């Protein structure tokens, strides 16, 4: 049976492109019976990247049905394919913390605390002397731009600062111009439903026994979010009730000014205030100055507040 | 504070030497504030290796006291330092399954399903162009010989078949002669107490909610074990009662003929029979023909039997 390669649920650009670039890595390793798939459809930003570089979106699956799996850009069970326990995890390439991850047998893992999953895959192409075609470079580039907000997120490491210009050159694009166009393509709120905004990029975390859902949406002007705040809050409430989230936080991130605002529904809004040292204002918005990274600036302080 | 590098509790030769070779890797990377330590004293086999190559045994610790830690040759919490939750895990290099492993932040992990932890560390020296001195080669060699029973265990991969002759050459020893001498040094039962035999190399596993303890002892003649069977069984019983193990299995392995015999105390002896398709005989011994690897031939079938 073909080995399935996929990133996390609600895939972002790094999750989708990592699956494609890791599948190509496998093929160059001589392992041809692999397929890059996805646990969801590409978002607008990812569509822009795939369209620009004439790449087909991976087939969407909702179950692995016992196939061997290779995970990219995630490891936690609740962010993975629903029936993962029926599959053998052959390998993991990831740049997130490890949790809710257990295997019956030894496996291949390559994890590094760098800015994107594609950064690690890029290193492995180099180590193995594999060819990086313009299309593969473009996909790696897009994933890394997305995850590092074009090198502006605090998750950025020297590795991305070194390889993004090189990948842009191989891909034949101007890094700044392509990067900003791609990021902006993901900020078209007019094209997003309320549910797209709240759930489109959301991930679940277990924090001190509570299920905390954290979504993130990129914008070029936070006023666009404020104009739809009542509807967005209704969506946070409805999804929390439907799915049993204890707290649902939406982080709206201004990618031009590197600031965010939090909107939230559920218990533990005091935990949010404690975590970020601020207060929800009269409009029920929590200012998150300088915050752009869920992984580095939102999850760790919130986890700490919930476990205090 | 100095970063501590260590392998699992009840350290075997691969656990002890991996800590030393990974510490040297860190130093060659420019990370000098590290110390190779151990969660126990070297066993007779490891002592032989350290003595042969004039290497001091790592300092034994029973707590990390909040220091950053780098794990080698293990990842599961119950096999690690007791106060690990107070430490940040900076990196893991391992060749075991992953379980009971959770971090708050992204980290470096290099895991591969190969025969020894030192095999992975060797690859990384090569990838980075680092120097492998005769002493470092000898320590890597010793760890890999121990874990693969001199290339005879089914955990052996092409990687060990390739690198062991090369490491022996750098270390200036004959692979077969040194390997057999080292393995035999670990089989001197006369020098071991009953507790050394049962607990000396034991690891705990959670199987279907039960705590299963599995020890292993290498011998050149299984009769040596049978001669002490009553005392060994008393030790299995005493340790189970003291530590709350649901089942304690001792695998006595004949390293010359690649066979094992199981002795056990506790509930679930039927699970053992189901797992290995045999019966405890009139002397309460379970023949395990061809079994030499706890990781590959004991844990997986037993886990399956307990979770059935």
UniProtKB/TrEMBL annotation, chains A, B:
GO cellular component: a single term: cytoplasm
Essential cofactor(s): Mn(2+)
Positions of the DHHA2 domain: 179-306
InterPro entries, sorted: DDH_dom (IPR001667), DHH_sf (IPR038763), DHHA2 (IPR004097), DHHA2_dom_sf (IPR038222)
Record SMART domains: DHHA2
UniProt KW keywords: Hydrolase, Manganese, Metal-binding
Protein EC: 3.6.1.1
Keyword Hydrolase: yes
GO terms assigned for molecular function: inorganic diphosphate phosphatase activity; metal ion binding
Protein name: inorganic diphosphatase
Organism, as annotated: Lacticaseibacillus manihotivorans DSM 13343 = JCM 12514
